[in-house]
Amino acid sequence: FSLQLWNNYFHLAVAFLTQDSLQLENFSQAKRNSILAKYGDMRATIGAAIRDMWYNLGHHKIEFIPSMVGPILEMTLVPELELRKSTIPIFFDMMLCEYQLTESFSRFEDEILRKLDSEVEGGRGDEQYKQLFESM
C-alpha cells in the first residue's frame, strides 16, 4: 500500500472535479446544454470514482483522516445534486472509521468544523447542501 500514491490520486481527482472549467452552473444555459449533450457531467463520474476508491481502501482509510476532510468537503460543496448525494456519505464513513479505532471522532470533527467554517465564510455552501447534509 502506497499512502503517497493514494493521497496523490484523491487530491488530483478533487482538483479535476473542482476546476472552474467543469462548473457548468457558471455557463449560459445554451453552453451548459451543449457540454452536457457532448460530454455529460464529468463531475458526477469523477465523484463516483472517488467514492468507490474511498470505500475500497478498507482499513487504510484511517490514514486519510483528517487530511482528506478538506478536499472531500470542497468536492461536496460543488452545487451538483448527484455528486453531493454520492460523496457526502464519505464523511459519515470517516466518522465511523475513526470511532471504530479510537472510540472518538474528534480528529474528524475538529477538521470538518474548521474547514466548513472557512468555506462558509468564503461564500461556499447553499441551502440545498445544508438540507442534504442534514438528511443523510
Write a structural description.
There is one protein chain. This protein has 136 residues and is an all-alpha fold. It is built from eight helices and no strands. Helix 4 (69-76) crosses helix 7 (106-121). It starts with a helix and ends with a helix.
Topology:
Blueprint (H helix, E strand, L loop, with lengths): L2 H16 L10 H11 L2 H14 L13 H8 L4 H7 L1 H14 L3 H16 L5 H9 L1
Helix pairs in contact: 1-3, 1-4, 3-5, 4-7
Note the main attributes of this structure.
mainly alpha, 136 residues, 70% helix, globular
Give a nutshell description of this structure.
The chain has eight helices and no strands.
- Mean model confidence by pLDDT: 90
Main beta-sheet annotation:
none
| Helix-strand makeup class | mainly alpha
List the helices and strands in order.
HHHHHHHH
Find the count of extended strands (DSSP E, 2+ residues). Answer: 0
Number of helices: 8
